[in-house]
Amino acid sequence: MVVSVFMIMRHMFNMLYTDDENAIPAAAAILILTAASIEVNQTQKRRKKRRWRVRPLFRQRQIGEHFTNLFGNMKTMDPEQFFSYLRMDRICFYKLLQLVGHRLIKRATRKTLSPEQRLVITLYFLAHGCSMQSVSWSFLVGKATVSVVVRETCQAIWDVLSPIYLKRPTMQDWKTIGNEFEEKCNLPHCCGAIDGKHIVMQAPKNSGSKFFNYKKTFSIVLMAVCDASYRFTLVDIGSFGSQSDGGVFRESAFGKALDSGSLKLPPEKSLPGSDVNFPSFFVGDEAFPLKPYLLRPYPGRNLEESKNVYNYRLSRARRTIENAFGILASRWRIFRNNIIADVTTAEVITAATIALHNFMRTEVLGSKGQMPNYIGTVDDATRIESNLSRLGRLGPNNSDRNSIEARDIMKNYLNNEGAVPWQLTYVRRKSQPNTGSS
CA-CA distance, 227 to 211, in Å (whole number)? Predict the structure, then answer.
């Protein structure tokens, strides 16, 4: 290569020192062609040659991989293992495949993965929290292929399921949710519980400290509202992990909609058994601002009994979002490990699991509110009590007088007309010092 370039340059030098008037344009053309040839040769050298069209291990896909053997046997012979494998039964799986299958069809010259295979690979990845390399070995497909399949399938799941199972609630939907909270949690006019969850992931490239949270991990924030049956109604995904819950809520779409009044909650009406009018509201923990439409606990530990009763009654409704997050992470164990993916893929994965969560809660639970042999069973006779000592100091969120008065009105109501028989017993038992022997 060096010799040929030298010969070309010598030829150009000779042409430039001749009397021919066409010598200079000819020399320039030769120089351009030479530069292009050198660039092509260097590009070919940099391009890594593929050793195989298909890796030899993956040529045995029809013999030793999960989909053909393990999954094929479970769906015909062992429904319990099928449920453990994909975290859903066969009826739900094939209904899900029927809904999203048309989005998973690929056309290419080579044989492609079927929609069923793509869905199985994605659900297996989400359900067990393993790495994409482990999925690659289990299904005998390339690691890059697994990454593409998971990302595309999760996007298809969100696009298809969210308009059905996570559609924006209407006025009538909010009224139904409010009735459920009043029936199951004894808190009237409540339209949902709100909280944030950190989705832990590997440190994004060149992100600085934006995703670094107070738990010393990197994360994005899932801000969500749920109903009394643990179904998510509003979600916001992708805020920086360094932001507080109050800050994420303030910048979220539904936070702004609440501030502007465009969310269209039911109008205020009298509380049951009382002539006091009160607006519809959400409940949150001490990290959220106190608003007329968002109630939070009284801060502090040594509170008067009426405030402790209010905090306890509020926590009975607020624990629904904690339970919803718990069910989500127990079913889709990708959330128990760091998500090894970029921020966009982590957001798509989170959105898909939210849609799948609501799909399962609707299709499996139906109107009974029960899922046999699985976490998240709703028992109306059981009250999940939260520890009042978790309540911390007042945060930096400033509250206006109307918001403070609204909380006081609800406190007075829950201690009088809206009282439940066991609330004083529970609060007084919690306030008694521990006299057990050491």
Answer: 29
Plot region of 100 (φ>0 → left; ψ -120 to 50 → alpha; else → beta): alpha
Residue-level length of the chain? 438
Residue 244, φ and ψ in degrees, nearest 5: -80, 165
Q: What are phi and psi of 27, to 5 degrees?
A: -65, -40
pLDDT in tens, 121-154: 999 999 998 888 888 888 888 888 899 999 999 9
The one-letter code for the residue type at 396 is P
Contacts of 111 (CB under 8 A, 6+ apart): none
Alpha-carbon distance of 234 to 173, in angstroms, equals 12
Is the pTM higher than 0.85? The answer reads no
Can you name the residues that pair with 269 across neighbouring β-strands? 278
- Please, which residues bridge with residue 236 across strands? 223
DSSP 88-154: S-HHHHHHHHHHHGGGS----SS----HHHHHHHHHHHHHH---HHHHHHHHT--HHHHHHHHHHHH
Q: How many CB atoms lie within 10 A of CB 350?
A: 26
Region of 354 (left: φ > 0; alpha: ψ -120 to 50; beta: rest) is alpha
